[in-house]
Amino acid sequence: MAIVGAGILGLAHAYAAASRGLEVVVFERSPRASGASVRNFGMIWPIGQPHGRMLQLALRSRARWVEVLEQAKLPYWPEGSLHVVYRDDEAAVAHEFAELAPGFGYQCEWLSRDRVLARSGAVKAEGLIGGLWSNTELTVDPRVTLAALPEFLHERFGVELKFGCAVRAVDLPTVEAGNERWTVDQVVVCAGDDFETLYPEIFAASGLTRVKLQMLRTVPQPEGWRLGPALAAGLTLRFYPAFGVCTTLAALQERIARETPEYERWGIHGLVSQTAGGELTLGDSHECGPGVDIFNREEVDDLILGYVRGFLNAPVMKIAQRWHGVYAKHPEKPYLVITPAPGVRIVSSPGGAGMTLSFGIAEETIEEMNL
Ligand SMILES: Cc1cc2nc3c(=O)[nH]c(=O)nc-3n(C[C@H](O)[C@H](O)[C@H](O)COP(=O)(O)OP(=O)(O)OC[C@H]3O[C@@H](n4cnc5c(N)ncnc54)[C@H](O)[C@@H]3O)c2cc1C
Predict the structure, then answer these.
(1) Residue 209 C-alpha to ligand 1 middle, in angstroms?
(2) Residue 12 in 3-state DSSP?
(3) What is the pTM of this model?
């Protein structure tokens, strides 16, 4: 089997196929993965998924993540998540979700102000009302993980990795990659937001678009200081579809749009995770459209930082890095699986949840291909 793309979706498919005994080759155009998968927070975030099939897929994916991280001896932090709230309308949504959620299969609960502060030393106490605590989220370091997984797949399962090798055409049993021709039985295309190289007509008709996110990273925090649970806050409650079950959400959305239209305009909310090296990853914003502005907006970084400073109590806030990432997204579907030809699957656009869902999606693809 050939996999196109060594982002997390491609590597998860390589794992799902190779761990079932298939012979796998992965083609990656760049010398190393440099797409959305190395630009994100590294959050495996079931709590963001709507209940039902997507939550179950995220939990299945999380279980596989842990299995892989353990086998590969890679660092990860299964420390859950905290959505911290400072306004009454945010508290109403967090409360309501905490009441409804266990019935839908989420493992979360409302924490009072004191219990939030007991669980996290990284939350600002001033004005804090409480928070939504969930123990299913885990954090990986995306740059460390995406660099190490190919080697693990090679050593453990004999997966062949061809970096710096773009796939130019697929016409089974032939795959043209770089200046080589390979003969394979099946292909899975996980090309991220590249809609132009392979099957451009299918991508053009798919309804997919691109989303650009601005991100920042601090210098390392002092030795020994850890973030604990990954942090989110009130703006995130209006962002993830999971919270759509709350009747109190409309009032929160209305207030945010009225008071802070700039957050709406740039799709801003505040998330914080920590890397293996101790830096804090901060974000993000969302600008949708097929063309991506290659330049970042300082105004957007300022808004993200201003918002995050409102709830994050970190020893050092000096910014060391700024970048943006781009992911593919479908306006309605959580991700796409398309069969452009027998034996070929395009698996694309898990949107802002590709780290969370990748291993679950990959298992489904490989099972569905009867492999
Ligand atoms: C800033 C940011 C923050 C995010 N935070 C999170 C998070 O915390 N949690 C979460 O669950 N999700 C998050 N996401 C979403 C997640 O990162 C993506 O959904 C996921 O990384 C997509 O993985 P992918 O493998 O499909 O794409 P990519 O990582 O973009 O990989 C695609 C790869 O395919 C290669 N490729 C393309 N065409 C070819 C070809 N013809 N031949 C060879 N190689 C090719 C590209 O070079 C690329 O390396 C975030 C996304 C961004 C941008």
Answers:
(1) 14
(2) helix
(3) 0.97
